[in-house]
Structures are given as C-alpha cells and as structure tokens.
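Hey team,

Sharing the GRTP1 run so nobody has to redo it. Sequence (146 residues) first:
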Amino acid sequence: MQEAASCPTGTQRSVKRYIRKGVPLEHRARVWMGVSGAQAQMDRNPGYYQRLLQGERSASLEEAIRTDMSRTFPDNVRFRKDAEPCLQGPLYNVLLAYGHHNHGVGYCQVNPGPPTDPGASPSRGSRREREGAAADVNTGCVYRTW
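Structure output:
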C-alpha cells in the first residue's frame, strides 16, 4: 500500500473518507501500516524488529516489562494468561523491541490512577510517562503517544 502523501488525489480523498467514517476491520492493519509510514520504514529496514529482539539483553528492561504484564489490559480477555491465543507474549516482544530501539524512553508503564509521589501532578504525570509508546501487537509496530 502506498503512503497517503504519494497517492493520486482521488485515492487521497478516498483514504480520508474511510478514515473519517471508520476503516472497515479487514482493512485497518494495511491502512494503518500505509498511512502511518510503518510499511515504508519496514521496507527500508528489513528484519530490524527481529534484530532488536535478538540483540543486546537488558535485565532491568526485561524485568520492568515482565512485572507489568499481568497489569496490562486487565479487563481484556485476550491479554489474560489463560486466553487462547494469549497476547501477552507478542506485547512483551513489542515493548522489549521498543525499549531497545529507543533507549531514551525505554519502558514506562503509565499509571492512569493517582500519583504515588505526592508532589507529582495527577493529570500530567512525568515527562517520561507522557512521552511513552503504544504498540500494535499484531504487526510489531510501535508509535509514540503524547
């Protein structure tokens, strides 16, 4: 799929219309990969995700991610250990790869509840919490949230 900016004008209008009205479920992954530029990045860097997973080890990064796995999406049945298939493994891999890709952010679980630090802002959290990452466990794509 072409990136939206390089599509012919009619296609750009069509993509905008679908995005505004909601992309049908069967097309969402391909549309997201194209519109976000993720497919182009994957094409420029084949195997990068796998290299991140197989590269250097960081015990502290791995432990921080493992600690939060059971608390991540606790109400979503697909992320429970007894789910078939359980998405905790793919999510762990995406978070680990992102932690290796972006050492400045690493891994940080954002706590939507009240802060544990009495001096912290309940609505804003720390800079690192605000500049976290979100991931698509099906494609291995990670994108920043802010």
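The first strand starts at residue 133 and ends at 136.

Ping me if you want the raw files.
A.
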